[in-house]
């Protein structure tokens, strides 16, 4: 049964700064996206810049609302943010004055839990994301990868049934990125929920996902929804991996070319 459902999602943004005056300032960002995801699915959203990946993710998070259509998670319509959906951003956005453990337990602080309760609740997640020994460090004392681990632990602590990740590894160096991808897959294999992950990287999507949704150039639609049937851990050098990569890259190239042509038209 579907766990996350996007039903005929349309999103129009009011954008008075756009050049094409015929639009009356309306910009169709998402055009009729319908998508069903089972529990324990790992979906990666791929597509050219501006195709609406983050907008879709933010609608599942409840930060954005569709102009028409609906989003449901576990049968419940999404009307706003909730603890059942954890979010991890490109920048970890940690509280610089709080140590690692208290950043992880930040939601409990908001609920008025004592320091001892927060410290105890944070500990298993510190271990999950391999930050043992860094509990008392402050964000300024962490590497980019460590800060992202804190962000992931902070999302996990709320025991969400969905984790939404918006390019969480984009700012990391190549080696750290690979390690974080491996760790995330291990974590997901133990996790009972669903992950929706936005990325620009075809390799990253193919290493992580059970399904990859390739979106069209604006307005965003689902161009192809591909089941990734590759054994784990995934080897990026195999013929099977590269077959998927060729297919996805050809779609992305077509969509990026359309985006480029539109940009030239708009500038003319
Ligand atoms: N609050 C907003 N107001 C007006 N337009 C917006 C708003 N948020 C997003 N948009 C527009 O909607 C479109 C989709 O944006 P979105 O950030 O979802 O794309 P994206 O695929 O995540 O892009 P990128 O890969 O560059 O991060 C873009 O044209 C963007 O300018």
TrEMBL record:
SUPFAM superfamilies: P-loop containing nucleoside triphosphate hydrolases. PROSITE patterns: ABC_TRANSPORTER_1 (PS00211), ABC_TRANSPORTER_2 (PS50893). The keyword Transferase does not apply. Signal peptide: none annotated. Keywords: ATP-binding, Cell membrane, Membrane, Nucleotide-binding, Transport. CDD domains: ABC_NrtD_SsuB_transporters. GO terms for molecular function: ATP binding. InterPro entries: AAA+_ATPase, ABC_transporter-like_ATP-bd, ABC_transporter-like_CS, ABC_transporter_ATP-bind, P-loop_NTPase. SMART domains: AAA. Residues 4-242 form the ABC transporter domain. Belongs to the ABC transporter superfamily. This is ABC transporter ATP-binding protein. It comes from Herbaspirillum hiltneri N3.
């Amino acid at each position: 049964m579907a766990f996350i459902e996007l039903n005929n999602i349309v999103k129009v943004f009011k954008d008075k700064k756009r050049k094409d005056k015929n639009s009356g300032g309306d910009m169709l960002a998402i055009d009729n996206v319908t998508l069903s995801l089972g529990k324990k699915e790992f979906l990666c959203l791929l597509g050219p810049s501006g195709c609406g990946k983050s907008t879709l993710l933010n609608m599942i998070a409840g930060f954005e609302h569709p102009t028409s259509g609906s989003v449901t998670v576990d049968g419940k319509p999404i009307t706003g943010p909730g603890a059942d959906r954890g979010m991890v951003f490109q920048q970890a956005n940690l509280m610089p004055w709080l140590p690692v453990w208290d950043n992880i337990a930040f939601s409990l602080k908001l609920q008025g839990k004592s320091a001892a309760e927060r410290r105890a609740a944070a500990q298993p997640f510190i271990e999950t994301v391999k930050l043992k020994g860094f509990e008392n460090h402050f964000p300024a004392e962490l590497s980019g990868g460590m800060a992202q681990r804190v962000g992931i632990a902070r999302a996990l602590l709320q025991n969400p049934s969905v984790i939404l990740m918006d390019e969480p590894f984009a700012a990391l160096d190549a080696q750290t990125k690979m390690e974080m991808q491996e760790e995330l897959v291990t974590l997901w294999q133990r996790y009972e929920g669903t992950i929706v992950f936005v990325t620009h990287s075809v390799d990253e999507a193919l290493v992580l996902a059970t399904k990859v949704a390739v979106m069209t150039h604006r307005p965003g639609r689902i161009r192809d929804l591909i089941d990734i049937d590759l054994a784990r851990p995934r080897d990026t050098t195999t013929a099977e991996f590269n077959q998927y990569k060729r297919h996805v890259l050809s779609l992305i190239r077509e969509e990026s070319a359309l985006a480029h042509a539109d940009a030239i038209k708009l500038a003319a």
